[in-house]
Model the fold of this input.
Amino acid sequence: MTETAATVRALTCPACGGTIALRAAGYTVSLVCEHCGTTLDAADPEVRVIAAASAAMTRPEIPLGTRGALDGEQWEVVGYLERSDGESGWSEYLLFNPYLGYAFLLDDGRRFSLGWLLDRLPESAVDGLQYASETYRRFGTPYKTWVRFVVGEFYWRVAVGEQVRVTDYVLPGKMLSCEENDEERTWTLLELLDRGVVERAFGIDKRGNAGAPAPHEPSPWHSRLIDAIIIGTVAALTLLFIAAIGSNTHQLAAADFTTTIDAPMTSQVIKGITLTNPAGTAVTIAARADGIDNGWVDVDLSLVNAVTDQSYGGYVLVEHYTGTDSDGAWSEGDRRNRATLSNVPPGRYDLVIELTGHRWVGPGQSPASAWGTADVQPVSIVLTTGGVFAGNMLLALLAILLWPAILWALHLRFEQRRTAPVT
Amino acid sequence: MSKSSILYALFCLAVIGGFVTTIRSGFSPFAQGGQRAFVHTAYGPTHK
Done:
């Protein structure tokens, strides 16, 4: 830690007679009396008045003369000014260390940033400026600011009403700020300080989190979003890999039947289906009626335990329709369909199948004139076990993607607030 | 890695574990099971 040297010299304000401490004697050019606000020429041995007080005195939150350590270096507050761009205002403290020189402590009312004047110019980059191997992107459009209030001592002639044109360039955590007027152009590098650092260093109340983020404030959700994307991607790929491995199915039974259209229901049975998995089995029963046209077949299914008579029911509808209208030919329906039974316990089962065929009678048609389906339709039934339920996989994927989606929304909302025009 | 990321990783493990369990037991809340939840109640084309 660097000790601040004894550089304080006492002066008397020629306007109000108050005693003023000149803390950076030899460096300070202008001095604003902390009692009456009169701007004095600190370089003149007579401490000449440059400008009379033009604004009511304001006491800075960090009083002039307060010392505090930032990044291991001791700084003393020697000047304070308030700026405005017409829409919002902020405060700037001028810090002094006789060995390090001056630094700025910018207070936007929510977070503090520590800034230094650059001793070399940033270089142009494709999408902004480059400085110290980092690329800064331009933030917003150039804007004018003026000094609303000033007190303390400064190494330049500062006065209320002083205007500069500012252009900001940002990257998360840092900002390059170009200030220019008719005489000069200066570049300042600002680094966002962690919450509570300045409050602890200078003994002021801790700031809340309300208000719009600073232009160079990193999104608090970004790192968590990156973590979540990596973890979520690994988990989703693992899920898909497991689904691919577990998608194998085993055909246990198959049979072909016929159903007569518009006849009473017929009942068929496939016997001797044995399920062995003690944890339960997924059963899929597929029905297929390739010849059906302009009609449908109801396939009622019951998988009945041969010992306990416990029944697991399902239903399949196979249907197909065709026709023509003013737009041309159309068709709809599916001649293949299936029913799925979940977690069927182990045991010997019979599959009871009830088939009912129907002919569709369109508007303006009589049953006798309806066309398409033949009177007797073959229906194939296939029973398989195992496989992966697509619904389960989609639910698991949704569950995995939910947290990254929430973080992404929070990150976007933060970025929108960060880049939104000040209102 | 933040605490929330670790919790999320554990959550993903739980989801994958649950998914594996549904494969092993052949369970799905979306299956017809013993009920006729997805029975069509209307027949005929919907073509207009």
About this structure: Residues 1-6 of chain A have pLDDT under 50 and may be disordered.
